[in-house]
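The freezer alarm interrupted the setup, so I double-checked each line after restarting. Inputs confirmed:
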Amino acid sequence: MLELAILGLLQEAPMHGYELRKELATKLGTLRAAISYGTLYPTLKRLQTSGLIGEAGTADGEIVPPLTSRRGRVVYKITAEGKERFAELLAQAGPETYDDAGFGVHFAFFARTDQATRLRILEGRRRRVEERREGLRDVIARASDRLDAYTLELQRHGLDACEREVRWLEELITNERSGRTPCSPADPATGDPRNTGSTSKDRP
Amino acid sequence: MLELAILGLLQEAPMHGYELRKELATKLGTLRAAISYGTLYPTLKRLQTSGLIGEAGTADGEIVPPLTSRRGRVVYKITAEGKERFAELLAQAGPETYDDAGFGVHFAFFARTDQATRLRILEGRRRRVEERREGLRDVIARASDRLDAYTLELQRHGLDACEREVRWLEELITNERSGRTPCSPADPATGDPRNTGSTSKDRP
DNA sequence: TCCTCGATGTATCGGCTCGATACATCGCAA
DNA sequence: TTGCGATGTATCGAGCCGATACATCGAGGA
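Predicted 3D structure, all chains:
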């Protein structure tokens, strides 16, 4: 999942590790407080080894062995294979696409995919959250006399969050279906969000 | 975190692995879809090795070496040290106490701790969520022209969830302070939740 | 009687991720 | 010049997950 996020950011601009970490925080906001270095650097190394990213300044796909740790920071850029892999990951339909982390990352890069894929992912996520919701309803209905009040309150709060997310997803799906998509479906970032048909209330 | 959850459940009754998994699901509901076996069994082994749990039928604290894998299931029970450790973990105030998973588990076992601890944990969690909320507000206010509409929508949805959780926590804190605590603060489960002063709306 | 099948149940493996930690460099101010 | 905080790369141990293997048990049918 982190692979996808890194490839997505490097698709927008070359970056070094530290920068990547900060951009990741503003792009994914809610999903993870801040990405850990113990995750970031091994992932970068993995991506470089498999040829999906390279150091800025080298030809596409080339791997530069000892130059890596010259002095100071190392700037990475995405390679051609990296772009392919990114598109592939972004459009995939596995179960991990629909859990909290997976969906969040996919959603954050929705501007880089097409409407059909967006719809598929939104609907998959909705199904997932609905399942969770049903599970919680079952527990509340069937085990409420066996659980103490705090546990029950936790379930209710979870149920509330599920119901709210389903409503949010449904608004997004409706917008998507009616063509009110906020971004160009093409590859390059348009930088012109315009009206999004936002579903959140404005804050005072 | 899982340690705490397992000790908590075994405090209520002896159980074997599979059962533990199911009870965990109904107790933690929202927090984790279902606990993985790759997590559960190593954790059980770890707990047994450190003497916090033992196999049912053995004296408190004794460790039985080869009996483990006789045939069929292995029933575990908590030991005296395990109970101590549980109380310790439940009342602890580290940073991991306030993240999503940590807070959830602590909250699920609120009925087994005292009011002062509950209040401390609720307030710590509130602070944590408020920080996240401020971070999101910053991003939305300062980087909104740099982010595409989908990313922005993700931030708004996250912000909304934060604000809602803060309100929920504040209701719980108010209830707690005014002594409207739904459960007996004592050790044994009272099994009499009564009116909880619940903050969630009733469902139809 | 025997045989299969699904539910129950224990266990391990590889891989991702985290938190803590170490260390090196740079710019700036006392 | 010395020191110090921000920047930046990197590693380590351990927790947790998904997939997988395998063993047992009860029920139902040929």
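Quick read of the result. Residues 1-2, 35-39, 42-43, 71-72 of chain A lie near DNA strand C (CB under 10 Å from a C1').
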